[in-house]
Amino acid sequence: MPNPDHICVGAIAGSFGIQGEVRLKSFCSDPEAIASYGPLFSEDGQTSYKVKLTKPVAGGLGARIAGVETKEQADALKGISLYVDKKKLPRLPDDEFYHADLIGLAAFDTGGAELGRVLAVHNHGAGDLLEIAGPGLKSGLLLPFTLAVVPTVDLAAGRIVVDPPEGLE
C-alpha cells in the first residue's frame, strides 16, 4: 500500500540517447521543480533516485540519474513512478489541494447524505474532475472540481460537500 505521506511527482518515461539519460514526465505545476525536492523515491520507498535535469526533450525533461550510465540501465527504469515526501512540497493556498489529499475523502451532498468517497482525480485538459464512487451510485460520478460544485473541502474532517448540477445526482 502506498505511503500517504509520499506524493507522486513524476515518472520515468524511458531512456533518452545512448549515455544513460532518461526522459522524465513531471507532474509538478512547474515541471522543472521535480529536481528541486532532493532524492526521489520508488513507490515502496526502498529505492532513491538522485535526479539532475539536463535539457527539455520531446514529451518531457531529459535527466541524469546518479548511477545510471548506459541506455540499458535507463531502459530498465521505464515506467517507475517517482515520489517525494509530502513535507518537501510547497504549502498550497487555502483553496488549492494536492490530488493525493482529496482521494479517499468522504463525499456528502448539501443535505448531509453520504454519496461515497473520492476515488480519483482526473484532468483531461479542461480542469479537474472528481470521481466519486459509493454504494448508492450505479457508476462512478464525475464532478467538476469547482467552488460551485464542491463548496466545502475539509481535510481535517476527511470530507467534502458536493452540490451536483441538476441531472447528475
Can you describe this structure?
With 169 residues, this protein is mainly beta. The chain folds into two domains: 6-88, Elongation Factor Tu (Ef-tu), domain 3 (Beta Barrel), CATH 2.40.30; 99-162, PRC-barrel domain (SH3 type barrels, Roll). Helices cover 6% and strands 41% of the residues. The protein has two helices and 13 strands. The chain has a six-stranded mixed sheet with strand order 11-10-9-8-13-12. It is elongated. The two termini are 31 Å apart. The model has no long low-confidence stretch (mean pLDDT 88).
Count of helical segments?
2
Q: Structural class, please?
A: mainly beta
Overall, the morphology is elongated
Proportion in helices: under 10%
CATH evolutionary superfamily of the largest domain? RimM
The average pLDDT value, as a whole number, equals 88
Which fold does the CATH topology of the largest domain refer to? Elongation Factor Tu (Ef-tu), domain 3
- With strands numbered from the N-terminus, the spatial order across the biggest sheet is 11-10-9-8-13-12
Order of helices and strands: EEEEEEHEHEEEEEE
What's the gyration radius in Å? 19 Å
> Separation of termini?
31 Å
Low-confidence stretches: none
Number of domains: 2
Summarize the structure.
It contains two helices and 13 strands; from the N terminus they run ββββββαβαββββββ.
